[in-house]
Amino acid sequence: MIRSDHDVLIIGGGVAGLSLALELADHRPVTLLRPAQDDLGASVWAQGGIAAVLAPQDDVEAHVQDTLVAGDGLCDEAAVRFTVENGRAAIDWLLGLGVPFTPDTTTDAPYPYHLTREGGHGARRIIHAADATGRALIETLLDHVRRHPAIQLIGDLQAIELLEDPRGDCRGALCLDATHRPHLVAAHDTVLATGGASGLYRHTTSPAPACGEGMAMAAELGATLMNLEFQQFHPTCLYDPSGTPFLISEAVRGEGGLLRDARGRRFMPDYDERAELAPRDIVARAIHAEILRDGGTHVLLDVTHLEPGRVREHFPTIHAHCLNRGLDINRQPIPVVPAAHYSCGGIATDLHGASDIGHLHAIGEVACTGLHGANRMASNSLLECLVFARAAASALRRRSSGRRGEPVEPSIAQAGVASQQSLARRLEELRDIMSLHAGIVRSDAGLASGRDALRHLREASEPLWKDHAPTPALARLRHALLLAGMLLDVASARRESRGLHHNLDCPTHGTGKATASRIRSGA
């Protein structure tokens, strides 16, 4: 086994991982694992922008209250306030790095950059780079990371397991290179920034969604996970069964886009007084209900009543992408469906990204800070990535004293490689189970059936990782099965409907104070 030793190891190169590397590298040497598929991760596909209190007429308390309402009684208010209060500093940091946010060129602009509004927000507070904010962030951050002398960027290793020392603290990761050779990448501190778990579902808003690998690796080490049952489905993914997934930003509705059924009737006012700007869980369930009622496959997002130049100015990526698929959104409504988008749950952390496993931090979508509660409000995710990356960097700047624990070398099977077709088929079966039984609307019978089906799939798959040499695809299946089982367990245990978890057999809020679900792996 090939061994290397590192000080701080960051696994994942989206906005959270890149931001942490830049904020920490002036104080400690950083190794950043950023495989090629990170270029297709959730960060780069983020369109809408970053929510922050920037305009003079906006205030911290308003953003806090909007977030608490969207989280449906399950947010950690301390985490919400911490995030919102640090939002302005995070945006100023990005501006200092040169992120090309869209300017506001109107003569009476209250803030130099254009601010849009999205679902759940009571004010315009979303700063953005046209409709490709994630890409602008990644390109800017990555440029700075590549030029920093204290950051080692590694693109040919894939982490498949976290390492522990005899005390149970995290000490790096077991990784595989392109030829599947194992590498023991030892580290004093390890940070997971690996993204969420939308890849557990068949339809997602990303062409290469994470399957909760980071969450599962942490769970295998004994870390506490929380709120896994709150999987957000973005209300508006372009409906095109023959094409790749493509998100239609919430900002389209923020700028006046209307949702209509197959007959052209606007339906959101029937479901919520906030109409198209209601929180995502409400909009997604409304679309789901309309599709079921009509027996159709999608609904329509209409911007044809808006000024065409304004549409092209604010949504150039969406306009061009749809045009390439034969759809002129200035003349035709956009067919849309809900799709798995964001995991509100993950590795339980404190306000500096620390998990309950020594020397293991988590930031970004892989973590659960308490900010989102039962439902993430639009554009709070990139804000969370930035604020908690900077907070984790502050906590990690001084290397903890004491002798570094030596990682226990894991045992690795030396048998042949499992069939890629077999692994892909099993992962698709898992996604079918989750989409059918743990999607936008759930039931007791469906969750029970899902748990049974998943248990049979896991039992049938266990010989694969016992009898075959590790590969990234094999590890991904193992992690997905573990995390999907944990999600179904906590979803079955929540005897109420709250936020993104809607159970037809428990349609109302439970009595008493809302509590987060916490779970440790039995693996």
From TrEMBL:
Its main location: cytoplasm. Keywords: FAD, Flavoprotein, Oxidoreductase, Pyridine nucleotide biosynthesis. Residues 501-523 are annotated as: Disordered. InterPro entries: FAD-dep_OxRdtase_2_FAD-bd, FAD/NAD-bd_sf, Fum_R/Succ_DH_flav-like_C_sf, Fum_Rdtase/Succ_DH_flav-like_C, NadB, Succ_DH/fumarate_Rdtase_cat_sf. It is found in: Cytoplasm. GO terms for cellular component: cytoplasm. Pfam families: FAD_binding_2 (PF00890), Succ_DH_flav_C (PF02910). Residues 428-508 form the Fumarate reductase/succinate dehydrogenase flavoprotein-like C-terminal domain. Its EC number is 1.4.3.16. It comes from the Bacteria. The keyword Oxidoreductase applies. It catalyses: L-aspartate + O2 = iminosuccinate + H2O2. Residues 7-382 form the FAD-dependent oxidoreductase 2 FAD-binding domain. GO terms for molecular function: L-aspartate oxidase activity. Pathway: Cofactor biosynthesis; NAD(+) biosynthesis; iminoaspartate from L-aspartate (oxidase route): step 1/1. GO terms for biological process: NAD+ biosynthetic process. Its cofactor is FAD. Catalyzes the oxidation of L-aspartate to iminoaspartate. Belongs to the FAD-dependent oxidoreductase 2 family. NadB subfamily. This is L-aspartate oxidase. The lineage of its organism: Bacteria, Pseudomonadati, Pseudomonadota, Gammaproteobacteria, Oceanospirillales.
